[in-house]
From TrEMBL:
It comes from the Bacteria. Residues 17-40 have a biased composition (Basic residues). Residues 1-43 are annotated as: Disordered. Transmembrane segments: none annotated. This is ComEC/Rec2 family competence protein. InterPro entries: ComA-like_MBL (IPR035681), Competence_DNA_uptake (IPR052159), Metallo-B-lactamas (IPR001279), RibonucZ/Hydroxyglut_hydro (IPR036866). Gene3D superfamilies: Ribonuclease Z/Hydroxyacylglutathione hydrolase-like (3.60.15.10). Residues 95-263 form the Metallo-beta-lactamase domain. It comes from Deinococcus rhizophilus. The lineage of its organism: Bacteria, Thermotogati, Deinococcota, Deinococci, Deinococcales. Pfam families: Lactamase_B (PF00753).
Length: 335
């Protein structure tokens, strides 16, 4: 392929002139034994033995377990409320983030892919993902994009959005090549609003002036389904979130029923002023064995102090939220 990516990295890899190009025929999952071992840990008990937290307002009452408000003010629904359910899965990919969103209409977004191609392949197989409408790479670090490569190869995304700063690794190059081969349209994060059926994804571009540090140029997304809200902001560090606060961006205003812990619970991620705006009800930490001390006590204490319910993929495996348009939801974990 010719001008595939500006080596210096600015700007998303060149837009394909053939932007219209239909997605490459979604590669069929090579009937490999990928199904085999889902992951090293828990064994096949996961989907079955899953312990289910019913967070839906009504159900929570009967379940009597933890009292979880199912969030979402019912009050005024704008126009007609969508029907069906949106499913958001924080995939257990070890240390890293990978969030799979499916709208009631079957439209799909993959936000980051974790660092393991193998684990991502297994998840795609498990959840039958053969097509991705929107792929977002929060930034180009390996623990976020390595797993995107097999996702592109299997389910060639229609659109790929990133921060416009190319990675410097072979993994990045592989990703770009795969996207080109799939005929995916590249877009640099701006203020796109992408409709996945009745799910609205509002892209939160990095604020200006962040230099070219990958973390501080993380692309965020606000996900809206009826009155349900979720916020994902990659590995955005304090500098970036402070700049977003300063910009007074409407997309970061809570409350959010669901929120992704910044930077795997690093100490330079979530902070009080930020959480005071975001007001998350549930936080999921995408974390696995690591040498960084993630998640840090600092982050965990912060969540505790703000009364945010904490989920961790290292302890609970894949964490799934099933949301209704009235803002209620159910949370399910693999273990
Ligand atoms: Zn990361």
């Amino acid at each position: 392929m010719s001008a595939r990516q500006n080596p210096k990295g600015k700007a998303a890899p060149s837009r394909k002139p053939a932007a219209k190009a239909k997605k490459a025929p979604a590669r069929k999952p090579t009937p490999k034994g990928a199904r085999g071992k889902r992951r090293g840990g828990p064994g096949p008990s996961d989907l079955l033995g899953l312990f289910v937290l019913l967070l839906t307002a009504g159900l929570a009452a009967c379940a009597g377990k933890e009292v979880l408000s199912g969030g979402g003010g019912d009050g005024q629904t704008e126009t007609q409320a969508p029907t069906g359910q949106m499913v958001i899965r924080f995939l257990d990919v070890g240390q890293g983030d990978a969030i799979l969103v499916r709208s009631p209409e079957g439209k799909t977004m993959l936000y980051d892919g974790g660092r393991s191609a193998e684990r991502m392949r297994a998840h795609l197989e498990t959840y039958g993902v053969d097509r991705i409408d929107l792929m977002v790479a929060s930034h180009a670090d390996a623990d976020h994009i390595a797993g995107l490569v097999p996702a592109v190869q299997r389910a060639g995304p229609t659109v790929f959005i990133n921060n416009g700063i190319a990675g410097t690794t072979q993994t990045w190059d592989r990703l770009v090549t795969a996207l080109e081969e799939a005929g995916t349209t590249f877009q640099k994060a701006n203020k796109q609003v992408v409709n996945l059926g009745s799910v609205k994804v509002r892209v939160i571009a990095p604020p200006p002036g962040m230099g070219d540090d990958q973390n501080e140029n993380s692309v965020g997304v606000r996900i809206e389904f009826g009155e349900f809200r979720a916020l994902l902001t990659g590995d955005s560090e304090k500098r970036e979130t402070e700049a977003w606060l300063e910009q007074g961006r409407p997309e970061i205003k809570g409350p959010f029923q669901l929120y992704k812990s910044i930077h795997h619970g690093a100490a330079n991620g979530d902070h009080p002023a930020w959480l005071a705006t975001v007001r998350p009800e549930n936080v999921v930490i995408g974390v696995g064995e690591n040498s960084y001390g993630h998640p840090t006590e600092t982050a965990l204490n912060l969540y505790r102090e703000t009364g945010t319910r904490v989920y961790r993929t290292d302890r609970q495996g894949t964490v799934t939220f099933t949301a209704n348009a009235d803002g209620t939801y159910t949370a399910t974990t693999d273990r």
